[in-house]
Amino acid sequence: MKKQAIALACMAAWQAAAQAQSNVEIYGNFDEYVGYIRSSSGAHITGLNDGAVLRSRLGFRGTEDIGGGYKVKFTLEQGINADTGTGADTTRLFDRQSWVGIEAPSGEYRIGRQNTEIFLIGGAIDYTDRTTFGSLFNTFGIPSRYDNDLSYRTPRLAGAQLVLHYALPENGGATRGNSPVYQLALDYRNGPWRAGYAGLQARPNTVTATVRDKVVYHNVYADYQYGGGTIYLAAARSNNSTSNANGLNAGVILNNVSSPTNFFAGTDRNAARYYNLYQISADYRIDSRLRVGALYGVIHDTSGGDGGARGANVGAYYELSKRTTLYGFASEMRNQANAGFRFSGSAGPSANLAGADINGKHLTGLQAGILHKF
C-alpha cells in the first residue's frame, strides 16, 4: 500500500510539473464592420464585411518548457469570414499559420506555414496597423505568408533583432524550375525609437519565364513615440502589384498568401513595372480609451505609365473594454489614369467595387465596426 501511495504521489507530482512547464491556448478574434465605398463613376456599395483591423480567426498555440533554456512552440491559426461563418480559405484548415519551432538561447527556429516579416511589422508602418481602407501599403498588397518555410530569428541584442526565412521550392515533376522565396528583416528598438527593414525576393521559374525580373518587396520604416502618440514613416519598393487590384494594376506574379504555390511562372509583363510607396502617419491618445490618427500616402509608378495612386485617411479607436474596441475610418484614394487600385482591409471586403468603377477613379470609403479578442 505504501509503495502504491508513493507511486501515485510521484505520478501526481510529475503531472503537475508537466502542466506547469507546458500550456496550450485557444485564442482568436471577431472583427466585423459596415463598409461604404463610392466611386467618382457614381457607383457605390454598402456591405457587412469581415476584418477591417484584424481578420477574424481561431487559433491554437502552445509552449512546452523542456529545460536548459529550450522551449518547443507551435501555432495553428484559421481565418474565418465572420459575416457568413465560412472559412477564409476553403482549401485549407489552418490557412493563416501552421508551424512548429524551438526557442533556444541562440534564437528561435520555426518550420511550416508562417507569416512574413513584412506582414508582422504592420504595427510599425502606420497607426492603422497597415490594414484599413486608408493604408496605401495595404492597398498595394502585402506579402503575408508562405508554405514550406524555414525561419530563424536571433535574440534581441542591444535593441536589434535579425530574422531570416527560406521557403523551399520543392521542385519536381511539373513544378521543376521553381526557386525559393527568401526573406530578411532587421528590427531595432531603443526607447521611443523603432526602425528597420523587411524584404522579400523570389526568382521566376527558370523553365517557363519570359519576363526575367525577380519579384522584390523592400520595406523600410522609422517610428518615434512622443508624449501623446507615435509618428510613423514608411517607404517600400516592389514590382508585385497583385493583391487588392481588380483593374488595370492586376497581375498574377507572386501570390501574397502562397496559393496555390509559393512560386510564379515569370510570364506576366507586370513584373517589369516597379512602384515606390511612401507614407506618413501619426496618432494621438486623447485619453486612456480614445485614440485618433491620420495618414497620407503615395503609390508611384516608376515606369512613367500613370499607374499610381495617392490617398489619405482619418480614424479613431475607442476601447470599450479590455477585449473590445469600436473603430471608425474615413478614407479617400485617387487612381491615376492608368491605375486600378481599390480599397482593402485586413481581409478583402466582400462588398467592393471593381473594373470600370476603379480604373482611373477617385474612391471614398467609410468603415465603422467592432473588434473583439478572446
TrEMBL record:
A cellular component term, taken from the record's GO annotations: cell outer membrane
Membrane topology, as annotated: Multi-pass membrane protein
Residue span, Porin domain: 7-337
Pfam families on file: Porin_4 (PF13609)
GO biological process terms on file: monoatomic ion transmembrane transport
GO molecular function: porin activity
Key words of the record: Cell outer membrane, Ion transport, Membrane, Porin, Signal, Transmembrane, Transmembrane beta strand, Transport
Signal sequence extent: 1-20
Lineage top rank: taxon: Bacteria
CDD domains the UniProt entry points to: gram_neg_porins (cd00342)
Cellular compartment(s): Cell outer membrane
Main location as per UniProt: membrane
PANTHER family: MAJOR OUTER MEMBRANE PROTEIN P.IA, PROTEIN YDDL-RELATED
Subunit and interaction comment: Homotrimer.
Protein name: Porin
